[in-house]
Amino acid sequence: MKFTPGAKYVFYCDNETVNGIEFPHTLNTEGTIICDMSSNFLSRPVDVSKFGAIFAGVQKNVAPAGLGVIIIREDLISTERLHQVPKVWDFKLQEAAKSLINTPNVFSMYVTNLVMKHLMKNGGLKHYCELSQKKSSTIYDLIDDSKGSTLVKLTKMPGRE
Questions:
Q1: What is the pLDDT of residue 151?
Q2: Given a cut of 90, is residue 122 above it in pLDDT?
Q3: Where does residue 49 fall: left (phi above 0), alpha (psi -120 to 50 degrees), or beta otherwise?
Q4: C-alpha distance from residue 65 to each of 40, 97, 100, 123 (Å)
Q5: What would the pLDDT profile of 59-76 be if each residue is shown by its tens digit?
Q6: Is the dihedral of CA 28, 32, 36, 42 positive or negative?
Q7: DSSP codes joined into one string, the chain
Q8: More reliable by pLDDT, 155 or 133
């Protein structure tokens, strides 16, 4: 993948579900990486230190809709109030208010907390990623072994070798 030389940041969607594109690894670029992980948040371990910011909605993999997660590198949080930016997107204000500038979706937060506790109690993301890969392999193997009696034609995906 080619990037504009000297780009200050790169924004991408890690798992674009419309066309079925998922990056199997973190992009390698000199710029700060800003990533939308809404479709695959908590689907595999991620080294957050390689990103300037990660954001995701919890509605696909974690909890009912209505809660967003933002993991942002501290040096990217502005130290001065940017009046043209709504308070909800002013990360310095959010940090100072412990993310309570607006009324949070308490039920979604509660379910997210339960999911996080369950994940940690049962082996963490690495365990669930391995479990998911086993399930996927079972399905893909079944389709591959059907000798064409399926209506779905699948191509090999990265990580499915």
A1: 59
A2: yes
A3: alpha
A4: 15, 22, 18, 25
A5: 988 999 988 899 999 888
A6: positive
A7: ----TT-SEEEEESEETTTTEE-SS----SSEEEEE-TTTTTSS---GGG-SEEEEESTTTTSSSS-EEEEE-GGGS-SS--TTS-GGG-HHHHHHTTT-SS---HHHHHHHHHHHHHHHHTTHHHHHHHHHHHHHHHHHHHHHTTTT-SS------TT--
A8: 133
Q: Is the pLDDT of residue 158 over 90?
A: no
As a whole number of angstroms, the distance between CA 50 and CA 153 comes to 35
Amino acid type, 74: E
The model's pTM is: 0.76
Q: Rounded to an integer, what distance in angstroms lies between the CA atom of residue 152 and that of residue 38?
A: 26
CB neighbour list of residue 82: distance below 8 Å, 6 or more residues apart? 90
In sequence order, the 6+-apart residues with CB closer than 8 A to the CB of 52 are 9, 32, 33, 34, 72, 73, 76
Tokens found for residue 157: 């995906």
Largest Cα–Cα distance in the chain? 63
Q: How confident is the model at residue 160 (pLDDT cuts 50, 70, 90)?
A: low
